[in-house]
Amino acid sequence: MRIKVLGCSGGVGPGLRTTSLLLDEEILIDAGTGIGDLTLSQQRRIRHVFLTHCHLDHVCGLAFMADNLFDLIDEPIAVHASRETLQTLREHVFNWKIWPDFSVLPDENNPLLRWNEVAMDEKLELGDGRRITPFRVLHTVPANGYAIEGRSGTFAFTGDTYADDALWHFLNGLPRLDKLMIEIAFPDKEAALGYASKHFTPDLLGRELRKLEHRPKLYLTHHKPGTEASIERECRQALRGWEYAHLKRGDTISLS
Ligand SMILES: Nc1ncnc2c1ncn2[C@@H]1O[C@@H]2COP(=O)(O)O[C@H]2[C@H]1O
């Protein structure tokens, strides 16, 4: 199982792309601006998109990808997300005003996109021994992460989240957890903004991690542009004892 980081920043700027992960060339987890670096033929290979929530930085790429592929694919791309996320996307993005409704284009019988509602904590088979399970997280809008179990290990991605016991409860219930991609959007001095916008800061994440019974390698993501150096400095103290890396666009996470 190989996960390529197309984007993992909390915003945009030179060299920065928003959240999108490419799993084994055919599955996207979130569709932020990171998908803009995929060639047309790489985009054609995408069969599934799993969304964590409806915020623009995680979904905007889906709109452009659908348009790019208009007459290039025979089977619709399955867009998997919670009921709330799908409802918001359909009402507020793919509504013929912000963007055309690609779930009925080019025509109703051969659409570009197919909506698929996922239920929290219910596993979906991805083939080749891989299974994906959505789990609820706390954010300003309904949001979830995904745990992906493969033959050689388990990777979990929280998406955007804040401190919440349900998160640790779910992760502790996994038989194993080898790699955890988790967000830190702001440095400690912006803890109030972190609370308002439901994002972690280094100190808070360090304290919350004491509730985790697994000892995965941590991949830190979603740093807001301009905060990277402060977050990295604070993590040296807050995450002492943990193996961790600050993710960058282009990085690869492998489970082998
Ligand atoms: N009060 C607020 N609630 C939510 N988001 C906010 C607020 N103030 C600023 N923001 C920013 O708006 C952004 C929306 O996307 P994010 O959740 O990634 O991060 C959020 C913050 O950076």
From TrEMBL:
Domain spans labelled Metallo-beta-lactamase: 17-198
Alphabetized GO MF terms: 3',5'-cyclic-AMP phosphodiesterase activity
UniProt-listed SMART domains: Lactamase_B
Annotated InterPro entries: Metallo-B-lactamas, Pdiesterase2, RibonucZ/Hydroxyglut_hydro
Protein name (Swiss-Prot/TrEMBL): 3',5'-cyclic-nucleotide phosphodiesterase
GO biological process: cAMP catabolic process
